[in-house]
Amino acid sequence: MVTRLFFGAVLCLLWAGPMDSEITQNPRYKVTGTGKRVILKCDQTENYDYMYWYRQDPGHGLKLIYYSNGFDSINKGDVPDGYTVSRKNMEDFPLVLESATSSQTSVYFCANSYSTVTHSCLLSAHKGWLETLSYPELARPGPDLSIQCCRPSLGQSHPDWKSP
To answer: CA 19, 20, 22 angle in degrees (round to 5)?
Structure first.
């Protein structure tokens, strides 16, 4: 049986302080075979410096894949293997899976932040789901999810996430 990857996104905007910024993640749904190239687009409405890609595996917490703190600035997170990103302008931060694998089954979050130093929670997030399926009839989008971002601790390069 052919293994398929399923991707669906549900918008989940968080409180963004004095200025709201929206994140748009595309495609909303994606079905592809293993070994295929997948591009998850992340666009923001404001020119916030910081943009992030996270993944959350079933039953686990969020893990940072990559983040950027400005134009052409790319930083590896905790789990960058198997992914690439680019930041050719301030609005876009696409995540690329060069050869999709079943180990990349996860919920994906794109987020942005005006600053990680003086503000505590200025992120917008977009929820996505990428799942390897043996039985396509089991693929169903999940419910909306709310998460909160917390200011980084001293020495941390990215914010923490938690369920309210």
So the answer is: 145
pLDDT bracket for residue 11 (50, 70, 90): very low
Question: Can you give the pTM of this predicted structure?
Answer: 0.62
Evaluate if residue 40 carries a pLDDT over 80.
yes
Tokens standing for residue 15: 């409180």
- CA angle, 84 as apex, 81 and 87 as ends, to 5°? 140
Residue 13 burial (C-beta neighbours within 10 Å; 0-12, 13-18, 19+): middle
Residues with Cβ within 8 Å of 14's Cβ and at least 6 positions away in sequence, in order, are 121, 123, 124, 125, 146, 147, 148, 149
- Asked whether 111 and 124 are in contact (CB, 8 A), the reply is yes
Domain boundary assignment for the chain: 4-162
Q: Which CATH class is domain 4-162?
A: mainly beta
Indicate the SS3 state at residue 72: coil
| C-alpha to C-alpha distance for 24 and 63, rounded to whole angstroms | 20
